[in-house]
Amino acid sequence: MGIKLLDKYAVKEFLGPFVACVGGITILLISGYLFELSDLVFVKRVPFAVVLQLLGYRIPAVLTLTLPIGVLFATFLSLGRFVKDNELTVMLCAGHRLARFALPYLVIGLAVSGITLAANEHLVPYTNHREANILRRLVLQDGLPVIEEKVFFKDPDNRFFYINRVDRDRNLLSEVMIYVPNPESDFPTLITARTGEFRDNLWHLQNGIQREFDSQGYLRREVVFATLDIVTEEPAEAYLGKQKTTEEMNRRELREHIAVFEASGIKVDSFVVDYHLKLALPGASLIFVLLAVPFGFHSGRGGRFFAVLVGLGIVFLYYAATSIFRSMGANGILATGPAAWLSNILFGGVGAAAILWLERR
């Protein structure tokens, strides 16, 4: 069998399990989300059309998770069939290298990583934002505070607001940051407060500091205040479409917020880690191929059930490690860049080393 024909054969064997895995896992996750939304239909009497909108907006984010998992299992299952039928053994005995046999899978993994990255930059933030705005409107209809934790939003005067924690029972805000663009400087006026309240058009801040910076970024004036009232032009509901979490931003938007906070001396490690993860996580498809090729070569003889178990183990370990490293980076235990990329480096390194080891056997 020619090597180009082998590539086409490998891709053909890959596509069926890939579509089945992505479709099955996506349906499973969307069904779980639908179960979470059931109260909206039966308790709050939300029209089913609105629930369908929420499901539709959730699909792109779910696909960015299921696509890498689909790549992993499809690589396992297609390689497993080659191993089980001794086709891979015949090709290796004919002088073809394992790395060359793995090339179409690596190309697919790289392509899916590129698609996931593009979706995370241009589609997922938009759909996440639309979904979140629908949920915020439903919360507002219940008479609950609309201001959320760890969310950026902007008022008509181009002031940016951020609240780290919200006590909804007492309508209290904790760790409030407001930055106001300064027409005379590239650096904003920064207001931070330990606590505050938000009622209608009034922000009542307590125990805070107002800092002003010169054109070089050096502190020009610092005022400590016990209380400070800030009046906005619009009430809370006017900010519904302007609130954004990091999941509702692309890398450019998040970088702009990070730059302002860093220039003002505010520690934003958690945001910086999320910024790097927006680039690192889409690489999961390529990392999973690097792992699936050597493990699939050995696990193929164990059958599909064994391959699925190994695949589940890899998925769990990868995302658990990513979560742990993210937490370590957000809390200053690891540098923010390495914290985001460490899972890819470790798991990708293991996969590449395993392929090289098999090549030299």
Q: Can you walk me through this structure?
A:
The chain has 361 residues and is of the alpha+beta class. 61% of the residues lie in helices and 16% in strands. The protein has helices spanning 3-42, 48-84, 87-93, 98-122, 124-141, 251-263, 269-280, 284-299, 303-330, 336-360; strands at 151-154, 160-167, 172-180, 189-199, 202-213, 219-231. The protein has a 6-stranded antiparallel beta sheet, with no helix packed on it. A hairpin with a 4-residue loop joins strand 2 (160-167) and strand 3. The protein is elongated and about 80 Å long. The mean pLDDT is 84.
How is this structure best summarized?
The protein has 361 residues and is of the alpha+beta class. 61% of the residues lie in helices and 16% in strands. The protein has a six-stranded antiparallel β-sheet, with no helix packed on it.
